[in-house]
Amino acid sequence: MIFTTSSFRQTTLASVTQPLRNSVLFLLVGIVLLTNLTSQTAAASDASQQLSSAVRKMNYWLIGDAEAEGWRRFLMLNVLETQVAKGPHADIGALKMISDRFHSGASGLNHPRFVEVREAIDQQLLSLSSTTSLDPAFAISEARGRYRKITVSVMAEQRDAAVEELEFLIRHYRNHMPSRDRANLFYDLKLDEVKATLGSIEFELAPEVSVGKIDSMIRDLRDQLDDIEAKLDALPFLPEPDETPQPDQPPADQAAPGDSVEGKLQETDGPSEDDSQESRQDLEKRQLKLEKEVQELRSKQRQVARDDKPRRDRRTQNFRAFLRLEANFVNASKTETNPVFVSAAAAYERFVRTYVYGTEDNLQEDYLKRLSELDKQLGRMNGPESRQAAGLIGDHLRWLENANQAPELVNTFRFRFSQPNAIFSVSSSLINQLAARPINDSQPVRQNVGGRLLRGNLQTNAMTTIDLVNDPNQVHASIHLLGTVNSNTYVQQGKLQVFTQTNGDIEARQSIYANVGGFFAGEPKVAANFRADFLGTTSRLRLVNRIAAQQVEKARADGEAEAARQAEEQLLEQVVDQTEPLIKDGQEKLAERLKKALTESSDKLPEIYLYSTSDRIVGVARKDSISTLAAGTSPVDYGVRPQIAVRVHDSMLSNFLEKTFAGKTFTDSEIAEQITELFGETPKALTGEAVEGEEQPEPFSITFAATRPIQFEFEDQGFSVVVSGRRFSQGNKQINEGLNIILRFRIRSQNGKLQLIRNGDVDFSYPDEQRTPKVVGFKSFLDGRLNKDLEAQDTDVDLPDNLLPLDQVELLKDSPIAKRLRLVQFRSENGWLYIGWNLAPEYGYDPSWIYDLPGIWNEATIMQLDSSFTPQPGQ
After folding, report:
1. What does pTM read for this prediction?
2. Of 177, 596, 650, 743, whose CB neighbour count within 10 A is largest?
């Protein structure tokens, strides 16, 4: 008589593990696509920038290394990438844990790439821990007394760091670049000249009493003189006193009470004695004294200028040489974006800025002025001018960082006003809609066991899902298989058949940890549990059945344990066989994409990190720079949970355009080319083309503002584009004054189509308080041209269904999933754009969807909204 649960082992488990394979494949494809967005760009503060550069080079070096997965796990590189992307918002505790790993002394950590990251982490920890205040106003006050003079040793240290980076660049390219290409690049960069210039420089600081210092002292005295002039003008006119006493009047030296000069001043509308006003005589005396001091300072300034001229001439000569050589790096960066090159160029630029500011005549005076301007703009951050104020604050922070000043203040401002400006997420429900696989399998059992034929059937019911785990520093996804196995079998023993039933639970799980720089997989875990039951025999004799039941019960525990053990071994083997090749293949594909992403120009992509919650995979992005800020606020939770959610702050788009347009001059044809590249087409009114019924206009040019040249604004369920020009020319006409051009748009649903439409006339504003008739006339000209026959102009632009460009993006063209996505959220408020999609069911309508579409204008929404948003006639 035989009892066995080994009937489970007869199946190959292919029906169980194939869906697991499919789920792993789906998740890896998603990770590869997400990490294609990666870019650790130069972060804002100096410490953040150096850490970002070091991690970028390390990731580039690790690509293709056999030990890369082990290093990623041991050094917590997923967590490190998140902290790098967070910049001033980095978690100090997490950085300390990572630092401990880099300082552990493990074999291989003495490699220069690891050493550089370790030192950069330590520097970032020092920088973050020195930020003592999160209140910007208090930080400004504290910074006033913390001016740091740039010494010769600081400049020499920056120079040596730049030389070290250049030497590493040379060694790297000698090992990884063909000789001809390398020779051409080295010639273009003039590397020998760069190294020679850096090596021969002698650092000379400005004298304590410099031309610039004296100039600021003169300005202070002039301010005092202006104050005296104002006080003199405010004094009342008094007649000359009559020295002949009147009959009832005391002598002049015995003035009656209330009849003194002070008393008469009190009777006038002028300042009283309580205002601590000086007499005219005292004011004039002090005025002469100050004017004499000014003359003495001017004489001293001329003498200092003569004595300091040789140093200033050498400084100018060095500066010109540095800029000429720096231009070579800028030109090469258009095609050469290897992280090693980017790091060397940044180190050279950092030294040049340190040298320029360190040898400046009066850096402290400029420092105090910048702090005053920061204080002024801080007061505008909560008002209607907050976007322009943010742009000016970014410019002042850039100056402070270039001048190696007030790192605590810089970190405080960036912590408060440069938060992530894009967040995107995918829900676990959508992931499992696409990746989960049910298993319903029935197989016949026919197996020889101990010389006896075991027959019957095996039924498998299971499900593979992707479970997400809360992890704020990386994506933690668990591929999970859970199911049951049931078998009904019998063994023929002579004329007797023995019937048994086995019920089993099986489970397999494998974790994958990922971030933008790569991923690694945990060890798979499996479990199986079985219970066997004796069902009876074909014998009608009770004794036979009782004996058979006793044998089954006697063998039950060992049989169940052995069956579970063998099942777990086979299940583990099958899981490893199915997933290991997929993981390896995914890592190879990711390495290719990562290498391409790491060699993209660092100003193209934002800083990104990924993390997971129990119900979503979230990507967080921040696009800022040394001279721009990101978002000052966080998006609002409207209670809508789209399966795919995108939140974009208007600073994301504005900052993307900053480098292209800020302070640069474009002709009309160049503007048209840029707009076409960005948006696909350009309205005729914004090009140099003739409008119907008019003559061909002369070509014009515009010099964009240095701060916020093109500003996007997401407000009032629409959006605006503000183009800020600071100089205009057309033919022989030139206007050297500022003018802002404001275009407003909204999205309309009409006849089942989405359209982008103009929301009212093109508007204008003057950035400067004073304006000349010339700029007012130019505004009238633009007004007439851009708003001429507005109703007759074809300004509507058709948009793709659901705002998904299925025909334009290669990844979406043949995607059946993308075609099933339906827009369920679209709103534009308080600087944020909210977009969300759900996956439509293949058949029928899902009433559980929540629609939140106030930004899509139609008859219903127009009636619901305030009258101030009512469209203009004809729109």
Report:
1. 0.81
2. 650
Rounded distance between C-alpha atoms, residue 506 and residue 461, angstroms: 10
pLDDT of residue 342: 85
Q: How far apart are CA 235 and CA 91, in angstroms?
A: 61
What letter does residue 30 receive in the DSSP assignment?
A: H
Amino acid at 713: E
Give the CA distances from residue 411 to residues 55, 133, 141, 330, 405, in Å, rounded to whole numbers and listed in that order.
20, 10, 15, 27, 11
Does the CA dihedral 67-70-76-78 come out positive or negative?
positive
* Unique residue bearing structure tokens 């697991």: 20
pLDDT digits (tens, 9 = 90+) for 17-66: 566 566 655 565 565 555 544 444 444 467 888 898 899 889 888 887 78
DSSP one-letter string for 787-841: STTGGGS---EEE-GGG--TTT-HHHHT-HHHHHEEEEEEEEETTEEEEEEEEPP
Residue 563 exposure: Cα atoms within 13 Å on the Cβ side = 27
Look up residue 637 and give its DSSP letter.
-
With tokens 């003559």, the residue in question is 695
User: Hey, what are 532's tokens?
Assistant: 């066997």
**pLDDT given for residue 209 in this prediction:** 85
CA torsion, points 801, 806, 807, 810, in degrees to nearest 10?
Answer: 170
Which H/E stretch holds residue 323?
A: helix 280-332
Q: What digits encode the pLDDT tens for the residues 484-525?
A: 888 887 777 777 787 878 788 888 888 889 898 888 888 888
Name the amino acid, one letter, at 420: P
pLDDT at 476: 93
Three-class secondary structure of residue 449 per DSSP: strand
Interacting residues of 304 by C-beta distance below 8 A, sequence separation 6+: 207, 209, 210, 211, 214
Asked which of 225-234, 477-486, 842-851 is least confident by mean pLDDT, the reply is 842-851
E strand or H helix at 693: none
The C-alpha atoms of residue 519 and residue 504 are separated, in whole angstroms, by: 34
- The percent of residues in the chain predicted with pLDDT above 90, rounded, is 25
Which residue, among 635, 615, 645, 639, has the nearest Cα to 837 in the 3D structure?
645
Tokens of 298: 């001017």
Indicate the burial class of 546 (C-beta count within 10 angstroms; 0-12, 13-18, 19 or more): exposed
Task: Write the CA distances from 441 to 459, 481, 487, integer angstroms.
Answer: 6, 15, 12
**Listed residue (351, 349, 345) closest to 169, CA to CA:** 345
Number of H helices, E strands in the chain: 25, 22
End-to-end CA, the chain: 89
- Cα separation of 189 and 207, whole Å? 34
Sign of CA dihedral 343, 346, 352, 355: negative
Q: Which residues contact residue 341 at a Cβ distance below 8 angstroms, ignoring those fewer than 6 apart?
A: 169, 332, 333
Distance (Å, whole) CA 23 – CA 578: 11
Strands 739-750 and 856-857: parallel
CB neighbours of residue 841 within 10 Å: 12
Please provide the size of the chain in residues. 875
CB 428 within 8 A of CB 466: yes
User: Which 3 state secondary structure label does DSSP give 629?
Assistant: coil
- What percentage of the chain's residues is helix, strand, coil (to nearest 5)? 50, 20, 30
DSSP output for 661-675: HTT-EEEHHHHHHHH
Rounded CA separation 30/46 (Å): 34
**Residue at 135: amino acid letter:** D
The answer to whether the beta carbons of residues 665 and 860 sit under 8 Å apart is no
Report which of 600, 599, 649, 644 is spatially closest to residue 628, judged by C-alpha positions.
649
Backbone φ/ψ region at 488: left (φ over 0), alpha (ψ -120 to 50), beta: beta
The region, left, alpha or beta by phi > 0 then psi within -120 to 50, assigned to residue 763 is beta
Extended beta strands in 383-421, E state: none
